[in-house]
Structures are given as structure tokens and as C-alpha cells.
Hints:
By secondary structure, this protein is mostly beta strands. Helix content is 0%, strand content 60%. It has no helices and eleven strands.
Amino acid sequence: xxxxxxxTAVKKANVYFDGKxxxxxxxxxxxxxxxxxxxxxxxxxxxxxEKEEMEILAGVIHVLLQGSDIWSSxxxxxxxxxxxxxxxxxxxxxxxxxxxxxxxx
Length: 105
């Protein structure tokens, strides 16, 4: 899907790690939420509340899920899931463009 129709976008950005990770929230008519964001080169650790699906739109990202000692890599066109109530680390050498979908369990 190249674009979203009939959504509400929040103007204020979500800014993390001194501006090296930013996103904007988009809400759909059914109440679901996605964020569209950019990750600058570096290594970062995040926590989740809901289950998340991360779609990589551009760049390459390396991901370490909680409880694993194996880093997995994802490139544009690929997705990975992060369980609810967990942590995950990401690392990238390039700018990564992503879309995160929040999934109620």
C-alpha cells in the first residue's frame, strides 16, 4: 500500500534519541494506529506495549529481539514482528524509513 486513505494524522512528531529516531502517528477509522518514521544511523533500544509489525520502506536494519542473541537483518519490502510487552534493539548504518503497525492481541 503506497498511501493511506481516510486517516487522521497527528502533526506533532514523536522524537527519540535526541532526534535520531522520529515518527508521526496515523489513526484509521477503525481505531487502529500506525506510525511512519525515520531511524538515523546508530544503535537504539525500544520497548513495546502492543504487538508491533515493522515494515521497512527503505534502508537496511539489524534487529535483536528480547530473549535472542541472534541479530536478524531486514531490508526495504521486508517486515518483522515484535511481541507485546517486550524490548528490542535495532542497529543501522544507513537511514531507515519504516511503517509500524500496532496490533491488538
